[in-house]
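$ ./design --mode recover --in tokens.txt
reading tokens...
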């Protein structure tokens, strides 16, 4: 069964088509998530496969994490709950059983939100804002992995106030991803460190970035045997690098330009930051979102673009796929890439749901 029923989506599209006609806020006529955050969206995650229903959580610079239930047929959303942190929220992660959400932020802590009781408890502490949090499920342990601007990567058994392990980083943690048995962390000054999580977490190798500018996002991909083998990394310079951890051929690694203006403005091309990268859970193709207010779908194996959206009113800051790959969620809000003078407080923040399964099918081999 598809996550969006055909009839439900058709009805929603026509409704949004009418409302979007007078507004540029929803040029793709996608389904709008109700009661969006009051400030920029910093993180976005769908519930894991263990959960029967579909839930979406989003963290924001308004200090809150919100949770919505997504209707299986119509795609319409219903606000379910909300929790507040002691500062702007920087990342969220689901436990694999879907009972808890971990929230990290600028108050230097990570809190565990138990969805059944709607209570939170602090489970991790750093000396600076916690930029990333990820759930790790290994055969012999489960924990959360946290990366901070205090230049440490820590692993926590959430039942203990002290970390299981603390690893010094060469610089502040900017972005990270986990797909067992692999973790990858990118730091300030374009550092990339790959960790293996089997037995116990340990550094596997450091890799030199093929991108010349600051990294913004990183996402692990799998090979045809469904094994995590590499990652895509995006930079502020409108470029993505596809990097294998152990490439069979050095030419397997490559970079491509994205989120740039088609034409030139007085001889210059406008270049925008790549704010997030996600791989489709079924097809293995990928989505990028950027400061140009567009999302794009790509086939990395065919090295081709599959689709680019119309431009939104503001930047797209984050995106996510649900676990069946039917829904693509993306958040439209200001990302401060143009500085304070371009911030417009009257502009609303949006989260949209886009039916995407067919659009992300790989390009047929010729």
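writing sequence...
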């Amino acid at each position: 069964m598809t996550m969006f029923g055909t009839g439900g989506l058709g009805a929603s599209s026509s409704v949004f088509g009418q409302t979007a006609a007078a507004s540029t806020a929803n040029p793709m006529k996608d389904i709008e998530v109700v009661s969006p955050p009051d400030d920029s969206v910093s993180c976005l995650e769908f519930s894991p496969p263990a959960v029967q229903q579909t839930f979406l959580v989003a963290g924001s610079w308004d200090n809150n994490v919100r949770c919505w239930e997504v209707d299986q047929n119509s795609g319409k959303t219903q606000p379910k709950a909300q929790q507040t942190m002691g500062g702007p929220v920087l990342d969220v992660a689901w436990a694999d059983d879907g009972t808890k959400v971990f929230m990290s932020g600028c108050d230097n802590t990570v809190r565990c939100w138990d969805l059944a009781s709607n209570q939170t408890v602090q489970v991790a502490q750093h000396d600076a804002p916690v930029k990333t949090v990820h759930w790790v499920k290994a055969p012999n342990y489960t924990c959360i992995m946290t990366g901070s601007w205090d230049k440490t990567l820590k692993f926590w058994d959430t039942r203990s106030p002290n970390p299981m392990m603390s690893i010094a980083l060469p610089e502040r943690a900017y972005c990270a991803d986990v797909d067992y048995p692999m973790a990858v962390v990118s730091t300030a000054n374009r550092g990339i460190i790959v960790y293996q999580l089997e037995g116990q977490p340990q550094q596997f190798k450091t890799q030199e970035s093929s991108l010349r500018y600051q990294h913004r996002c990183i996402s692990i991909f799998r090979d045809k045997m469904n094994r995590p083998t590499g990652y895509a990394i995006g930079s502020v310079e409108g470029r993505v690098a596809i990097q294998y951890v152990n490439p069979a051929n050095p030419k397997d690694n490559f970079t491509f330009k994205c989120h740039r203006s088609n034409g030139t403005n007085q001889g210059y091309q406008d270049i925008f930051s790549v704010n997030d990268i996600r791989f489709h859970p079924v097809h293995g193709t990928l989505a990028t979102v950027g400061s140009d207010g567009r999302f794009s779908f790509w086939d990395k194996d065919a090295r081709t673009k599959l689709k680019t959206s119309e431009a939104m009113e503001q930047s797209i800051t984050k995106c996510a796929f649900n676990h069946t790959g039917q829904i693509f969620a993306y958040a439209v809000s200001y990302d401060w890439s143009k500085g304070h003078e371009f911030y417009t407080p009257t502009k609303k923040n949006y989260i949209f749901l886009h039916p995407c399964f067919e659009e992300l099918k790989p390009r047929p081999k010729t």
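exit 0
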